[in-house]
Design goal:
This protein has about 425 residues and is α/β, with parallel strands linked by helices. Helix content is about 35%, strand content about 20%. It has 2 domains: about 100 residues, no CATH class; about 300 residues, NAD(P)-binding Rossmann-like Domain (Rossmann fold), CATH 3.40.50. The chain contains 13 helices and 20 strands. The N terminus is likely disordered.
């Protein structure tokens, strides 16, 4: 194997030994160059995927030393099957260089904290609102990520500055062979399954809701069962919509074991998915963790039954007026990044750390009026009108003790910090001063 790649690694060593010259070459390509310590990533064509660390500053492949000269960088060498004459060297920024044999070297740079991924996570719905935040969180944690979605629009991923760091693969979870092929071909070790038709869309398209939400989840579980030597865990989105309306509960908080009786088709699909996931675990030993999030907020949300609540933040942020009902209704305001870290932890918490398979997760409980007052605290001139008309049948006061204990889930965004960041993102994008 060393002989097969000898010329390539010799060229690689020549590049790396030049050190500063690499940075200069990247600079000439018009790239932004980072400073500090970096790690080296190498991607080349092999018949099978192998990985080996950089030991003593030298590249190794499958524990066989192929380069005996110091490359002057720390990191890992990773080899994945691509095209035989295509080699990828991650050293800084991005760009291309060609050697005398017309082999192409793709250069990119990562700061030292970006560690080599031992896992590949496939995120269904990965280009959507919540999916993009999950992708961002996984990349920040050092994982390799595939965003699997019907839409290849990377607009949100780009705004989160991770579009260049994720593989986007077009696919449909309702097509069993498509999702299984995607998992197999990408070497996926963990799946975070978010793809679904949300409340209003499911109501308007009931047959499609069953195909996407129920059959789609079955296809994901089947992929994990079929590829059980590859897929270690499926973390997937259930929902607080599985609960009955609030008047059905007496306690201060609603535990996972309490009444599940959804009043929407969307909630019903999620309840069914909890049952089929349990069967796949008990009968086929598929490791899964389902999460019941509530109301997600953050920049770039556009769809879903609670999306209208975004205007409580977005309209004042852009100095526009807004009127909202349901002022005395309690909402669980859960920042998208808090939900994202919950899914990452659900995907990677060891089996012996799991006390159950379905977990409530929550953000900060506050009435719509209290949320509006928080916006006014941040922006005293906000033109918000709140009335107490109407009633929302959403159960929001979820007990998340289990998630805190088993998954080490911890809310990072309170209402003030989450809203302030949200407002300033919107203001910056629209040329307004931060608050």
């Amino acid at each position: 194997m060393c002989g097969h790649f000898g010329n390539v690694f010799e060229r690689l060593v020549d590049l790396c030994k030049e050190g500063l010259d690499i940075v200069k070459r990247l600079a000439r390509l018009g790239l932004d160059v980072l400073t500090g310590e970096f790690e080296l990533l190498v991607s080349a064509n092999l018949a099978r995927r192998v990985e080996g660390p950089v030991l003593n500053d030298c590249v190794t492949v499958a524990d066989t030393r192929c380069v005996n000269e110091s490359i002057g960088l720390d990191g890992f060498a990773r080899h994945t099957q691509t095209v035989e004459t295509s080699f990828k060297v991650s050293v800084g920024g991005s760009g291309t260089l060609r050697d005398g044999n017309d082999k192409v070297f793709y250069l990119s740079m990562r700061p030292r904290w970006y560690t080599m991924a031992d896992n590949t996570v496939l995120v269904t719905g990965g280009t959507g609102f919540l999916g993009s935040y999950v992708v961002e969180d996984l990349i920040d944690a050092g994982h390799e990520v595939v965003a699997y979605d019907l839409s290849t629009d990377d607009r949100i991923l780009a705004k989160l500055d991770v579009a260049d760091d994720v593989t986007i693969r077009r696919g449909d979870v309702s097509e069993a062979t498509d999702i299984i092929r995607a998992v197999k071909e990408t070497g996926t070790t963990h799946i975070i399954h978010l793809a679904a038709l949300l409340t209003n869309t499911a109501r308007d398209n009931p047959r499609a809701a069953l195909e996407v939400n129920v059959a789609g989840t079955n296809n994901v579980l089947e992929a994990a069962r079929t590829l059980d030597d590859q897929v270690e865990r499926v973390a997937w989105a259930s929902s607080a919509a599985v609960y009955a309306p609030p008047h059905n509960y007496d306690g201060e908080y609603v535990h996972e074991s309490e009444l599940v009786y959804p009043d929407t088709l969307y909630g019903a699909t999620k309840e069914y998915n909890e049952h089929q996931a349990r069967v796949y675990h008990e009968d086929y030993d598929v490791s899964h963790v389902g999460l019941r999030p509530t109301v997600a907020y953050g920049p770039y949300r556009e769809t879903g039954g609670s999306a209208f609540l975004a205007n409580i933040v977005e309209k004042p942020a852009l100095e526009e007026s807004f009127s909202v009902e349901y002022g005395d209704q309690v909402i669980d305001w859960q920042h998208a990044r808090d939900i994202a870290q919950a899914f990452r932890k659900a995907a990677f918490t060891p089996e012996d750390g799991l006390g159950q398979r379905i977990y409530n997760i929550r953000g900060e409980l506050a009435t719509i009026r209290e949320a509006a007052n928080t916006v006014r605290d941040i922006m005293p001139d906000a033109d918000l009108e709140v009335s107490d008309e109407g009633e929302l049948p959403w159960t929001q006061n979820l007990d998340m003790t289990a998630a805190e204990g088993d998954l080490d889930y911890e809310v990072e965004y309170d209402l003030e910090s989450g809203f302030r960041e949200y407002i300033n993102v919107l203001r910056e994008e629209n040329g307004l001063d931060p608050v």
